[in-house]
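yo

u said u wanted the structure for the complex thing, so here. seqs first:
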Amino acid sequence: MPRSTLAATRRSGAPTAGPGLNLPGRRSISPAYAFLLPGLAVFTLVMIVPTVQAFAISLTEWSVAPGRPSLFVGAQNYLTAVGDPVFWIALQNSGVYVVATVIPQMLLGLALAVALDRPLRGRAGFRALIYIPVISSWVVVSLLFRYLFGTDGGAVNALLAEPVDWFGGRWSAMFVIVLLGLWKGVGWAMLIFLAALQSVPAELREAAAVDGAGRLRRFWVVTIPAIRRTIVFVSILLVIGGFNVFISVKLMTDGGPSDLTQVPLTYLYRQAFNFLDFGYGSAIAFVLTVLVFALSVTQLRFTRRDDEESAA
Amino acid sequence: MRITKLGAAAAVAVLTTVSLGACTAASDDGPVTISFWHAFNADSSEVAVLEDTLIPAFEKAHPEITVEQVAVPYDELHQKLITAVAGGTLPDVVRADIIWVPELADLGVAEPLEGLMPDFDDIAGSVYPGALATAEWDGQHYGLPLSTNTRVYLSNPDTYEAAGIAVPQTQDEVADAAAAFAANGVYAFADNDLSGWNILPWIWSAGGDLLAPDLSTADGYINGPESLAAIQLLYDLYAGGAIPPIIVQGGQDGTEDGLANGDYASVMNGPWAYPIIAGSFPDVTLAASQVPSGDGGSISVVGGEDVVIAAASEHKEAAAEWVRFLVSPEAQRALAEVGQMSVLSDLGPEMVGIQPYYEQFVEQLATARPRPATPAWPEIDQAMKTRLQAAFLEGDDLQTALDELAAQIDDILAAHE
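structre next:
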């Protein structure tokens, strides 16, 4: 077959395959959507639909028993939240938790990853040791910390000259909650950073070394830029995880004493499951979702702008 | 002797009712399976008794009924029940903590038993009134008590011997004991929370109350002089270092270890403290006594479980049969062996034969009272403990704190109207 005929066939054949295909640059998009569909369907089913449902519930005085009417109350539950001091304490606490856990987890995780990225005696053992808290059950380690920091007979107070009533005050209790989050999470950050570090091309570092860059400088100008996307990824997931802190607070303080260590999830859990006020609980959940979503989008924006700048 | 005969007579009477009921159930239903959710402890022998003794005995007597039991950890059961209510998937029978029953009744998902069980009055008459009251809501009973318990004063005798004093019998003596223990570095008393379960025995024994008898208001009750005196006693002990700080920490710690170790001279606890302490500290012998009395006497709080039949159950007759069996003397005796005190008042004297440590609990139960049976209870309880935690931590004026609390509780009651 002459080459021109082949080209003609291709040209004339293309439109019949569908209107989308004849536009330059979009040729590969339709199959992509088809492949995305299963994942998207699951995402819609387990994420979008419940979110919309929760929003609908948050506008009502929701009746738990099916068959009983739920009273539409508009924004009342949101106004309740605004005027509820415990809701603000909960938001504050989760803000403190995020700041106090995310930054140290990233710095420590990166430092550990760099340290354990080089040949080292017992390297696998160290990696496992740091990763064990990550795979331990939240329930187990929360109860463990509760015992360790117990006022009477707690191991920590036994080591201190002056015993501290850890769970008797807001900040001392938050300190223990943060410490647990840090200890439990740092191994995960380390592991992700380790994987990223191993993908940094050795030639780049060698080239920088040839150019006379020292170890620190190589780290700053070669390694960090190479794993920048991973850093952003880790920070986004840690922030989301931080706002979703629940089990440790529920088991160690249950928001006490006197609601001073409430976080949004423990507070909404109490409203919904203890007081059966699912409308108010859903309102808190929805506010938290919007907040976390906005933060994640902002974090992504920052990196995208950086990408464009570096591309230009 | 007379009591034993009486008990035997009652047992025969109940058994007769059981078999009579069996005839009616078997007539038209055919083979049915009923589901039963409970929080019997899987780590102790409770679940074993249910699986190996109770269900086989019941199924043998009622070949047409199969019981499918589901053990749910206590901490998860309430959430699971509420989820099941929303999904319309409640089991036929639930063993519910007594404080959940008014809530289930108010949601309209529990079946009133007066209409379902023709022999309800007979059975109700055989259980402790305090236990029966926990299942009542709006003039009807939405369950039958299955097991009961209460809190008594549990003491470590070694600590009292070392301090050279006797276990306090009155609230005044508790205050005096604190002075004696201060020198030994021992806490005179310990409790792990400020919820109703913890402080109502002190308030009631002092002659106070939390709510008006008709549950309409807290004003004049929780902030009345008797209630104030009881809470003031606890606060003074806490502020003076005679009660450890876990009391403001929301029930996250148990008091068993501290009692057995001799860190705490006394605690208030239920019968389950015995197996817990025996497990870890086999050498420790506890001394039990009645709740320290005040102007109101020695009045403790009723705990325990009720069995509830779901309003949506398709096998209500069979479910009622299972409930009848569970409150029969046969089943109650088997449960008493594993730490579940019987709700049948006739079995009271027998309890001590089954477990000697039941003695003080049986005596205390005669006057023990249930927490207010209202669906607003979880919110009232939370409001009370949160406000009192703050007052204890900040050293607030207690009268002011209790006045505020009364107003807050009245708001909660109004919202539940």
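Residues 1-28 of chain B have pLDDT under 50 and may be disordered. The longest helix of chain B spans residues 2-29.
cya
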